[in-house]
Amino acid sequence: MATKPAPKKKQERSSRDDWLRAALELLGEEGIARITIDALCKKLRLTKGSFYWHFSGRQELLEGMADRYANAHHREIRERIDSSDLDDWERIKLVAKDAFDNYARIDHAMRIWAEECEFTAEAIKLSDARTLRFTEEKLVNLGVPQDRATLIARLMLCTGLGFSFAQPSLGGKKEYEELEPLIESLIDIERAKKR
Prior knowledge:
- This is Putative HTH-type transcriptional regulator TtgW.
- By secondary structure, this protein is mostly helical.
- 75% of the residues lie in helices and 0% in strands.
- It starts with 15 loop residues before the first helix and ends with a helix.
């Protein structure tokens, strides 16, 4: 007696953002060359029809990834932080932690991709500018003069990027977090100079 094939699982509906999130995750895991429609369909366990419901093709997906990187993840982080009752220094540390824990691989892959892609390079500029503005604003709120806040914000961004690119030779999260007291001391020095 022949057995009936198992019924197909009903596919869940996907959103454009589901595809973009999965594509950015895949980018962080495997690089830009592995961002294919087939690979994303496999990752999400969805059909090409679902993909083409949201995108006209791979190019629109790539542009959407760059846009999401530059805009949506900053908004998501900010929403989490703004709903907290943390002081400004704790907010800066939380953003740095979130970036290191959740975006380092994606950020690294985006920067490699940007070497060959103008719209990705523009997305990175926008993302970095937002990160710097956020950090500067919080540092100024802590009493650091604006010109010094700009320099410290750049130092912090470059430090995070350095650890992202140089893992494991510089160490990992623990070594990155060991820099917090040094940066906090620098902030205290700049605040004291202002008084």
